[in-house]
């Protein structure tokens, strides 16, 4: 058995597909490449491909990560070349590394930080955006009301919960190198996390009332654990 960890992109062409559809695209590419993929046992076997974290619809990624289990040994150059050649538009293979025996840990259990960039529309000026960043960072807390559909006995009701967005940030918001871009390092833990769109909506409610939240483009830059890229952990 061989396991490869891969670093792939999710580009603009794939922005509005679900995580399940994205995973299916990768699995179809693995089959087209003729790679000896491993499958689970049982009545409904599925390919043994595990992702670090699911991405929401409408989010692109400079680096998404998946572990691919194979039944036979195969060298890294052959694996990389075969898979790269058949990936669909909007999905590029950046790196592939074999996970050595005894060092294969679930990425879900390892990831503690997700770095996102949020591209604000041009009708928000650079001065407005910088002032918003400064006010947000200066605030000791920022409460956001999360709404979700109730389940079980509460089915049909909207459940509201107040959360402090700032407790889920690993560092202060910063301006990106490109115009109108804000960087947010979000904590990922068993206690929960927040979504970039929740940060955007909180900024709209508190500082940017004219902002169209849906016009902000969200891109995940990377996932890390203990300050290290997931590819550097193997």
Task: Classify the secondary structure makeup into a structural class.
Answer: alpha+beta
Which sheet architecture does the biggest sheet show?
A: 9 strands, mixed
Q: What is the CA–CA distance across the termini?
A: 17 Å
Element-level helix/strand string: EHEEHEHEHEEEEHEE
Rg: 20 Å
Give the number of helices.
5
Reported by name, the CATH topology of the largest domain is Alpha-Beta Plaits
Which architecture of the largest domain would the CATH scheme give at its second level?
2-Layer Sandwich
Q: What is the name of the CATH class of the largest domain?
A: Alpha Beta
Helix content: 10-25%
- Strand segment tally: 11
Could you explain the architecture of this structure?
The chain is of the alpha+beta class and 234 residues long. The protein folds into two domains: 2-108, Pseudouridine synthase I, catalytic domain, N-terminal subdomain (Alpha-Beta Plaits, 2-Layer Sandwich), CATH 3.30.70; 113-225, Alpha-Beta Plaits, CATH 3.30.70. The protein is 23% helix and 30% strand. The protein contains five helices and eleven strands, in the order βαββαβαβαββββαββ. Strands 1, 2, 3, 4, 5, 8, 9, 10 and 11 form a nine-stranded mixed sheet that branches. Strands 6-7 form a two-stranded antiparallel sheet. A hairpin with a 5-residue loop joins strand 8 (174-175) and strand 9. The mean pLDDT is 93. Residues 4-186 form the DUF2344 domain. Pfam families: DUF2344.
